[in-house]
Amino acid sequence: MASLDPLLDLMATLREANRRFERRFRYIEAALAERGKDPAQSNLAEMEALWQQAKIQERSSDARISAKPADRDT
Hints:
Elements: H1 6-34, H2 44-66
Helix pairs in contact: 1-2
């Protein structure tokens, strides 16, 4: 349900965007660490590829969660 105060909706949206950014950046850091690197030792192309992988992983996780039988309207 939407809030009656548009500012509260904006703040909630911003908090969620920040959470997504942090999750994805942690994914990049972990993937680079597995390669023996940190972000300073990487380049934009490598980090962009990892960012896209993080987004795909999030979407597939979201899809699995929403596909649980308890969540279906049957």
